[in-house]
Amino acid sequence: MDQVSLVIMLFAALLIPLVMAKFKINSLPTAVMEIIVGIILGPSVFNIVSMNSSISQLSTIGVIVLLFLSGLEIDFSLFKKRRAALTPLEKKNAVNIPKYSPVRLSVYAYTTIIILSLLLAAAFKVSGLFSDFWLATILFGTISLGIVIAALKEKELLSKAFGQTVLLISVFGELIPMMGLTLYASVYGSDSQSLWLLLLILAVAALLLLRFKPFFRFYQNINKSTTQLDIRLAFFLIVTMVTVAESVGAENILGAFVAGIVLKLLQPSDSTRERLDSIGYGFFIPIFFISTGVDLNLRTLLTSGKTLLLIPLFFLAYMVAKLGGYWVLKLRFKQANALAGTALTATTMTMVLAVLRVAKSMKTITADQSGAFLLAALLTCIVSPLIFNKFYSAEKEDLVKTAVHFIGANLSTVPVAQQLRKGWYDVKMYTNHPENYQTYHAQAPVELLENFTPIDLEDHDVFDTDILVLGHIDAERNYQLAKAAKDYGVKRIIVRFEDRNVLNEHEDELRDLGIEVYNTPEANITLLRSLIESPSTLLMLQDTENSIYEVKVLNHLYTNVQIKNLQFAQDITISQVIRNRKIIVPNGSTTIQYGDRLIFTGSKQDAPRIRQALATAN
What we know:
Elements: H1 2-22, H2 30-41, H3 53-72, H4 88-93, H5 102-127, H6 133-140, H7 145-154, H8 161-188, H9 199-211, H10 215-222, H11 229-247, H12 252-265, H13 270-294, H14 298-301, H15 305-320, H16 324-329, H17 335-345, H18 350-361, H19 367-391, E1 402-407, H20 414-420, E2 425-431, H21 434-440, E3 446-448, H22 454-459, E4 467-470, H23 475-488, E5 492-496, H24 500-512, E6 516-518, H25 520-533, H26 536-542, E7 546-552, E8 561-562, E9 572-579, E10 582-584, E11 591-592, E12 597-603, H27 607-615
Parallel strand pairs: 1-2, 1-4, 2-3, 4-5, 5-6
Antiparallel strand pairs: 7-12, 8-11, 9-10, 9-12
Helix pairs in contact: 1-2, 2-13, 3-12, 3-13, 5-6, 5-8, 6-8, 7-8, 8-17, 8-18, 9-11, 9-12, 11-12, 15-19, 17-19, 18-19, 23-24
């Protein structure tokens, strides 16, 4: 029977996304549907699946992997202090953004959640409905990070400011109650370890980070398909941190979350994260969510009058505790999205399960109260995503063009800038030569600067851009500015080197930093060879209707899909796939992988839409 239950759960995990796609059920995240299906399969309805030791162990691994992947999702670049947080285009188009970064908003929002949770816990204590003040505070302040991530992923929002803000609020909503639970168990429990031992978790995390810091620099050279060293490292980190956390009396999910942060700081490749997502969301995490539903016996819980009274009260408390976030999110995002984000942060399940498990072992909560907290948490997981999907729409800042800044206005850069302005790019050029300014400012958006020092460029917001092209004739100056731009945090930097000697001296250093370099004579040679070997190259270059494009595939909807099965396969021609710095000549059966760079041709009307679809991180 044990194996049959597991088979049914795995079949349900396979069937749920297929049914949701078939009937276009987009209002609820897959994780919530998995919990609902678990309730239907369990003793609440059909009773064809029962919990056993094997499923419980897999479920525990599932929540550990879920929290590990949650730590891996945090964008730590948001915490990096920069002189200016925005591109000029964002400053021009967005409202109130300069003051409020995702980090600041998330801190403000979760502060309101703590305050409201304390007030609600006090109200329950005074009314006599629930007397454990600190336990109620922890429960009301929890947010289900796994469900929030699932909802943001399905909306492709994790790479956007709104998604990162909601994610960080949810991180606080999982991490702070987790720490609060550890302190609660240490103070009121009988067999907990000393509080100072909790510092060992951070000490071990720091030690692992320092020990494996150079790992991803060299593992590609020795990695083989039969070794998968990066995945082995990930599970080593998980098991180590979970073991340390449990040894000092903390929850295993705290160790898993810290392990995810450690791996994130080690800067794994996109393919590593893709495979970890596949392992987690493909097997362990669905078992956790389905088993959560199976574990809820509604027949028993709903027979108690006190439980029926407490369910709506606890549900309202979960929701009201998050209301302060609405006014915080309104500081940057439009009103409907502030409501959507507030609703999504009201989802709570994962930490509620952990808190109630500890509380029951400490005998500080009754079965009726525990059941009411669980069912109320389940209601938030159904209602909140529905509100989120109903009200969310794209922010203005997510619809702006890609900002490209050119340093150097000359015959090599001006024609390129003119062509880019016709597409989905916002272009600005900078020169320190008055003669060049007089020559080109009527043809392109050129600004005249006295100096090209890093401080001057920062003061004029030149480094506030998505793409920086250093097209100045002075190769040594380009090298210095490229490093300054990288330190500042420019996402993509392209550098021109006319002096091959300077390029030879710095090429390896720049490539290690992720900076792209080019040399005009070599580019001309490559073009001429392409014309000789492929005469159609000239037709593509001269074609006024079609053009050549490059895009990095970050959208999971288009990964592990053969080129011939892409929904826009008839609209573009993919000529090259660049994977791990190797060029692949594709055919219809070539499978697109996460992180691939595609070189393709397409019409100037369709290509921007297709590029945006492929490059949208979800």
